[in-house]
Amino acid sequence: MKGALLVAGTTSDAGKSVVTAGICRWLARQGVRVAPYKAQNMSLNSFVTADGAEIGRAQAMQAQAAGLEPVADMNPILLKPGSDRRSQVVLMGRPLTDVDAMEYGALKDFLRERALESFDRLREAYDVVICEGAGSPAEINLRRGDIANMGLARAANLPVVVVGDIDRGGVFAAFYGTVALLSPEDQALVSGFVVNKFRGAVELLQPGLDTLRGLTGREVYGVLPWLDGLWLDVEDSLALDSRQTVTGTPHGRQTLRVAVVKLPRVSNFTDLDALAGEPGVLVRFVTAPGELDDADLVVLPGSKATVSDLAWLRSTGLADALTARRLPILGICGGYQMLAREIVDEVESKAGHVEGLGLLPVRVRFAEEKRLARPTGQAYGHAVSAYEIHHGVATVESGEPFLDGCTVGAVWGTTWHGALENDDFRRAFLSEVAARAGRDFVPAPGVSFARLREERLDALGDLVERHLDTDALLRLIEKGAPAVPFLPPGA
C-alpha cells in the first residue's frame, strides 16, 4: 500500500500524538513501512537523534511506535517558546533564529518549502506517512500561513481525520465548529472524526454520533475509551495540570515521594516518566513551597528560560525552600544550572551575571551554539546513555562527579536528559535517595523502562485495532478523502 493521512485535533492535547502513534504501531504490526511526521511542532519536550538533530519528543515516540530510529525529517520545524512572545526556531534539528510572532510570519514561505521537502522525502522512503497536525485546523486567524494543518493537507492532498477529547466536554460542538469554520477547499479534505477519552457505554453516545454524521456528512471512525497510564512522552504541558502518578506497590515498606517543580517554561519533563513508572514512586508536579515539605526528592527539571524561571523560583518562595532543604535535590539541565553559584547569560535572557541558588560548586556560561549530543558514561557503577540539549556550559569547581555534573551532599546536578531511563542506574540512584531521605523504599528488581514504553505503544496500537474502523482508515490512506458535502458557516 502507499499513501498518507493527517491526524488533526479540535484542540491542543486532544490526543493527536497518541492517535498518530497508535496508527503507526498498528500499521507497523501489519508489516507496513510507516513513518510519522509533524511539519511544525511547538513544544519544549524534545529529543536528539542519532546524528545530533533536535526534534519533538512526541515524534521520537511515534518513530519508536513505527519501529524506526527518529530523524529530523519527521519534525522539520520545532518552535521552542522562551517567553510569551518569542520562540527559538529549530529547522531540521538545528537552531535557526529567535523570533516573535510577526517575525515568524516573514519566515513562513521559506519554512513551508523546507517542511514539504521533508514530507516528500518520507513519502519516497516509506509506504505510508501518518502526519500529526498542530493545535486545531480551525484556528482561522493563523490559516493563511498554516504549515501543519490544512495548509499541509491542501499542499499534499491529504485526507484529514479530526480527533476530539470528549472528557473535556463539548466535543460535538467542537467537531461541527471545526468543519464549519473551514473553507470549502479545506472542508473537502476533512473525512471524519475520532472521539477520544470516552468513559462509559458507547451505546449512550450513539445518538450524538448519528446526529453528527447527519449534520456534517462525515463519518465517525470510532470511539477510543479512556485508558489510564498513557502518559509517556507527552509533548504539551497541559497534560501536567492534574498529573500525579504512582505505579504499583512499594517493594519496600514505604512509598518514595518525588516533587517536580513545574517551572513556567519547563522543558523535557518526560525525564520524569521513568520515575513515574517505578513501582512505589509517587511523582507529582508542584508550584508552591509547602508542597516540598513531605517530598523525599525534589527535582528541578529542564527549562527553556533558565534565568527567568530562576527569578520565578525566588518570587514564589521556592528558592528559599530549596536552599533551606537538607533532603535530596536533583537538577537536570536548566534545573542544574539554577543550582549553580553563578550564571552568565548573554545569549538566552541576555541578563549577564545572575546569582544562582548556590547549592552546587558550579559556574554556568551560556554559549551561542547549542549543544546537541547523545553522550554515554557511568554512575554508581552502571552504564548510562542520555542526550543533551543546552546552551549553558557548566564548569564544575569541586564536589564529587555525577554523570557530566557533580554532587555535594544530597544535591545532584547534570545536563543529561534521559539518564533515569537507564534501569540499573535509576535503581542505584533511588536507593541512594531513599537512604538519604530515611525512607524504607527499595526499587523493584527487573523493572524495564524500555519494556514499559513498548507496552504503552502496544496499548495504543491495540486501541486503534479494537476501536477504530481500520478498513476505513486504510481506504483513506490509499485512496484519499471521499467526496463530502460542504458545510456553510452557521449552517
TrEMBL record:
<protein>
    <recommendedName>
        <fullName>Cobyric acid synthase</fullName>
    </recommendedName>
</protein>
<keyword id="KW-0169">Cobalamin biosynthesis</keyword>
<feature type="domain" description="CobQ/CobB/MinD/ParA nucleotide binding">
    <location>
        <begin position="6"/>
        <end position="230"/>
    </location>
</feature>
<dbReference type="InterPro" id="IPR002586">
    <property type="entry name" value="CobQ/CobB/MinD/ParA_Nub-bd_dom"/>
</dbReference>
<dbReference type="InterPro" id="IPR047045">
    <property type="entry name" value="CobQ_N"/>
</dbReference>
<dbReference type="InterPro" id="IPR029062">
    <property type="entry name" value="Class_I_gatase-like"/>
</dbReference>
<comment type="function">
    <text>Catalyzes amidations at positions B, D, E, and G on adenosylcobyrinic A,C-diamide. NH(2) groups are provided by glutamine, and one molecule of ATP is hydrogenolyzed for each amidation.</text>
</comment>
<dbReference type="InterPro" id="IPR011698">
    <property type="entry name" value="GATase_3"/>
</dbReference>
<comment type="similarity">
    <text>Belongs to the CobB/CobQ family. CobQ subfamily.</text>
</comment>
<dbReference type="InterPro" id="IPR033949">
    <property type="entry name" value="CobQ_GATase1"/>
</dbReference>
<feature type="active site">
    <location>
        <position position="417"/>
    </location>
</feature>
<dbReference type="Pfam" id="PF07685">
    <property type="entry name" value="GATase_3"/>
</dbReference>
<keyword id="KW-0315">Glutamine amidotransferase</keyword>
<comment type="pathway">
    <text>Cofactor biosynthesis; adenosylcobalamin biosynthesis.</text>
</comment>
<dbReference type="InterPro" id="IPR027417">
    <property type="entry name" value="P-loop_NTPase"/>
</dbReference>
<feature type="active site" description="Nucleophile">
    <location>
        <position position="333"/>
    </location>
</feature>
<dbReference type="Pfam" id="PF01656">
    <property type="entry name" value="CbiA"/>
</dbReference>
<dbReference type="InterPro" id="IPR004459">
    <property type="entry name" value="CobQ_synth"/>
</dbReference>
<feature type="domain" description="CobB/CobQ-like glutamine amidotransferase">
    <location>
        <begin position="257"/>
        <end position="424"/>
    </location>
</feature>
